[in-house]
Amino acid sequence: MAYDLDVYTERRVNLVSQGLSIRQKRHFVEPVTADGYKKSPLRVVIADDVAMIRRFLEVVLESCLEYNVVGMAGDGPQAVRMAERLQPDVVLLDLLMPRAYETSVLSEIRRVVPHARVVIVSSIDPALEASLIEAGAIGFLSKQTVPHEFLNRLKDLLDRLAE
User: Fold this and answer.
1) 4 vs 141: CA distance, rounded Å
2) What domain range includes position 24?
3) How confident is the model at residue 28, as a pLDDT?
4) How many C-beta neighbours within 10 Å does residue 88 have?
5) What residues form DSSP beta bridges with 69?
6) Which residues contact 43 (CB under 8 A, 6 or more apart)?
7) Could you give the C-alpha distances from 25 to 19, 30, 57, 128, in angstroms and in order?
8) What is the CATH number of the domain that holds 144?
9) Which comes out higher in pLDDT, residue 26 or 43?
C-alpha cells in the first residue's frame, strides 16, 4: 500500500506527538544544574525546507523540557535572518535546502550568532564533514533517527562542548 509522503509524515508526526506528550506528562522533571538551580531551556531555531520535517523536529524537541523552539526557517537566507534576530543557543540546520549553498549559510549563521551551536541535521556526504566542522558545525544528526535517540545524540553533542 503506497502512502502519499505528506500524509504518511503527518500521521507519523501526530503519533509521535501524542506519544511524547504522554511520556512528558508521566515523567515531568524540570532540568536543574549540578548545584540544584533550575536551568533555562536552550533556545533552538530549526532550518529545513520541508515543513513536515520542521514540525516533526519541533514536536520532538518540545517534548523535552531542555529545549524551546523559538523559530523555524524554510531556506538559507531565512535561517540566517532568523538566527540573527532570535539569537538562539542552538541551530538545527539542513544544508540540502533552497539557497543554502553548502557552507555559506553555516558560516553566515556563525558570523551573526557566534555563541550558537550549529548542528547539521541532514543526510550529507561524509566527505563534507571535515569542511563543515571547519566552518563551525559541532556535529551531525540524521533525520532518520528515532525521536528518543535523536534527543540523546543532540544532548551528547551539546554536552561535549560543555566539557
Assistant:
1) 25
2) 5-162
3) 44
4) 24
5) 44
6) 68, 70, 86, 87, 88, 89, 90
7) 10, 12, 19, 40
8) 3.40.50.2300
9) 43
